[in-house]
Amino acid sequence: MLTNNEQLIKTIVELEIQLRELKLELQNNEEDNYTNPIEVGEEVIILNPRKGQENSGVVVKLHRRTKRATIVTTNKRGGEEKVVRLLTNIERK
Q1: Spatial CA neighbour of 43 closest among 28, 53, 58, 63
Q2: pLDDT, tens digit, 9 for 90 and up, residues 13-59
Q3: Which one of 44, 46, 52, 81 has the lowest number of neighbouring Cβ atoms within 10 Å?
Q4: What is the rounded radius of gyration, in angstroms, for the C-alpha atoms of the chain?
Q5: Going by C-beta distance under 8 Å and a sequence separation of 6 or more, which residues neighbour residue 85?
Q6: What is the model's pTM?
Q7: Sheet strands (E) in the chain
Q8: What separation in angstroms does the CA of 2 have from each of 14, 15, 33, 77?
Q9: What residue ranges do the domains of the chain occupy?
C-alpha cells in the first residue's frame, strides 16, 4: 500500500512524462509550420516593388510580430534604400 507521499511522487513523475511528450509534439508541429523561414542576410526578391524601387535586396531586419522585413536595396543612382515589406510579399532569390 502506498502512502500519500509516495502517491504524490508517482503522480508527479507521470505528469512530468506526459508534459515531456506534449512538448515533443508541440515542437514537431512548430517545425512543420515554419519550414525554412527567411533569415537576416538572405538575398530576396520583392514581389510588389513600387515605382522607382528595385525588386531585389538583402534582408537586414525581421519583425516577427508584425510579419514584416526591412530590405536594403540599391537604387538606380547607386545609393542604398530601405524598403519594408510583408513576409508574404518577398521570396528567396
Answers
A1: 58
A2: 999 999 888 887 777 665 544 556 888 999 999 999 998 889 999 99
A3: 52
A4: 24
A5: 46, 48, 68, 69, 71
A6: 0.60
A7: 43-46, 56-63, 68-74, 80-86, 90-92
A8: 15, 18, 45, 81
A9: 1-35, 43-92
